[in-house]
Write a structure and sequence with these properties.
Largest sheet: 5 strands, antiparallel
Strand order of the largest sheet: 1-2-3-4-5
Distance between the termini: 51 Å
Strand content: 25-35%
Number of domains: 1
Length: 88
């Protein structure tokens, strides 16, 4: 059994994550920095599902690992607020 953990945005992810997942975490963090999103107090949560890591950020971003392909998939929340530019 593997236990999950939490760590703050900008801190080093757990060493037991596959390299591709660690890369995905850094990619998300770089995007947040580039778009000037304030992430003070935001944390990542690592859980293990059937032996594979699932990493979730406080904003709802989820990173899932596919061991068969040694790949990571990033899923981000989409804003659904309408604006003046949206068509009715």
């Amino acid at each position: 059994m593997q236990l999950g953990t939490r760590w703050a945005v900008g801190e080093t992810p757990p060493a037991n994550l596959p390299e591709v997942v660690t890369y995905a975490v850094s990619t998300v963090e770089e995007e947040l920095t580039a778009t000037d999103i304030a992430t003070e107090g935001w944390r990542w949560t690592l859980t293990w599902l059937e032996g594979n890591p699932v990493v979730e950020l406080d904003d709802g971003t989820v990173i899932r690992y596919n061991a068969h392909e040694d790949s990571a998939t990033i899923t981000q929340q989409i804003e659904t607020e309408s604006s003046d530019w949206d068509e009715a």
